[in-house]
Write a structure and sequence with these properties.
The complex is a heterotrimer of chains A (about 100), B (about 270) and C (about 270). With about 100 residues, chain A is an alpha/beta fold. Chain A has a single domain, classed as Transcription Regulator spoIIAA (2-Layer Sandwich), CATH 3.30.750. Helix content of chain A is about 40%, strand content about 35%. Chain A contains four helices and five strands; from the N terminus they run αββαβαβαβ. Chain A has a five-stranded mixed sheet with strand order 1-2-3-4-5. In chain A, helix 2 links the parallel strand 2 and strand 3. In chain B, the strands form two sheets. Chain B has a six-stranded mixed sheet, with helices on both faces. The N and C termini of chain B lie far apart (about 50 Å). Chain B folds into two domains: about 180 residues, Rossmann fold (3-Layer(aba) Sandwich); about 55 residues, no CATH class. Chain B is about 40% helix and about 25% strand. Chain C is mainly alpha-helical. Chain C has one domain. Chain C is about 85% helix and about 0% strand. In chain C, helix 3 crosses helix 6. Classes of the chains: A alpha/beta (about 100), B alpha/beta (about 270), C mainly alpha (about 270). Chains A and B meet through helix 2, helix 3 and helix 4 of A and helix 4 and helix 6 of B. Chain B: InterPro entries: AAA+_ATPase (IPR003593), ABC_transporter-like_ATP-bd (IPR003439), P-loop_NTPase (IPR027417).
Chain lengths: ~100, ~270, ~270
Amino acid sequence: MTEDFIHFDKNDELCIIYVSGEVDLSNSAEVRKTILSALKTTPEVVVNLAHVEYIDSSGIAAMVEGLQFANSHGKTFGLSKPSKQVRSILELARLDQVFRID
Amino acid sequence: METNNNETVIEVKDLVTHYGQRKILDGVDLDVKKGEIRVIMGGSGSGKSTLLWHILGLYQPTEGQIKLLGKDIHRISFNEQLQLKQDIGVSFQSGALFSSMTVGENVALPLREFTELDENTIRIISRMKLEVVNLGGFHKLMPSQLSGGMVKRAALARSIVMDPKLLFFDEPSAGLDPVVASEIDDLILSLRDTMGMSMVVVTHELDSAFKIADKITVLDNGKNLITGTVEEIKKSENKRVMDLLQRRSRHDKLNPKDYLKRLTQENYTLT
Amino acid sequence: MINVLIKKVESIGISTFQAVERLGFAMRLFWDSFYWLIIGRRYKQKVRLRQVVEQIRVNGFDALPIVMALCFVVGMMLSIQLLYALSDFGAESQVLLAIAKSVTREFSPLITGVIVAGRSGAAIAARIGSQVVSQEIDALKVIGIVPVRYLVLPPLLGLMVSMPLLVICADFMAIFGGAIFSAHELNMSINAYMLESFNVLIVGDVLQGLIKSVVFGIIIVLVGATTGFYVTGGAEGVGKATTSAVVISISFIVLADMIASYFLTQ
């Protein structure tokens, strides 16, 4: 379960984190940790959310923290392919205008 | 949102409750599906607020059963109740913000009490919720510094901070000017559409009810009068429903002798 | 005539019933507070240390100046009266002993209790009462926070800690007040008077005052919270509750003082 839920592709320039399934209070801390530690070692981090079925506020907060860290350390942080549910939640808090989404 | 989902999330069966000798609720049933917005209407004294307090477990019924998300609220342990409460958000008529805390602390309180989240994460989540209700940047104010509409929106932010599955509203737009009231209605709709929450809204505002409701339940004298879609309610030929829609209050048939007594007797009291 | 009599008896019955009901409610609050203190962690109902410290600050530390000032004055007043009364017997030298004992055993806990009842008892009743009126209690319940744990336990612990501390300061100030007035009459320096006072006191004297003060603290919180939770009728109800919280808690304090004195002086 945990192996499927989060994994990443990494080279010197770019780290892509793939998250899938449900992100909620029980595992958002892990997402947060992964994002922050990836940002410490690579200049660009992208979180792929294509296979996220559900994400709660703590999951979104983890992304916000990633962006905050990236901006204050001169790195790049983005989201890619958010699923419909993720996108609508981002739009609800108008975060779609804050994140770089591709 | 998802029309093929028929899961019942709120189930009330045969609810009876007394206040002293008076029956407030007399066999009320309610059945709300996932993702549905159910509006409960009725004149004052119809028992609509009492029903809400019972569903939330604030009052004990005389008889009847209440199931939320499949769990009988009177038959589960304290820990299960606590678990259930994380899945429920309530927005009170007065807002019921904690007056000794700032708006931000109010919104963050459930996260602080019931999650192990990092303080930084808690701050982001609670401010995000304030953004959702259009109160971005207001987290440092005290509740007493907010206007009526802002209090209600802040209370709404607090009620959704745990991402609940069920959301309850007591008179969300009462006492607000039409513009703010319709803002709240829009918020209710967009929350349902994005988060798939199921909602029960107790209100007496017709415009708001027709705008947000999937189904409307009308209570009268503690009994179910009718349940149906907005169209069905509008077309109903039931006299009490028509009275309600046309905002007519009921006058009992006048008894001239009683009437004279009420006007003239010094010690007259209602029996 | 008979009707009036029946009405009177009826209303006495009703108010007795209400009084007993509230007494039961207060006992229940006390029991529940310690239940949640001990078992709360298991049910996600942790008592925050920060909340308790805040209560110690508000109910204890902030009351310190007024408590110290009044006890100083009471110490002076006692020495005036005792010097006058005892001079008839030529027993002025006993003033020091009389002040030290009466102050530590009786006056400083009582005065502290009355002041804190007026400050904190009223504040607790007003706070809880207005929270009942504004549905904040209901909001706590639906969020999953047990109101007793959140609203009653912190001030209860706060007062149980701060009352004895206040009383120690009060003891000191009252004896000092006595010293200012009577040291000269007794041909002693103020320093010597103070030292001699501490010498004549035994542990039991001070302890009696401290035990009483803890009991008074409990009474103040329970009476304040009970009247607060029973508030009905909006803002006016809150005002009434505040007044009756002060009156009732002072009455209970005096009563408890008498009972405690009886048993602790055996």
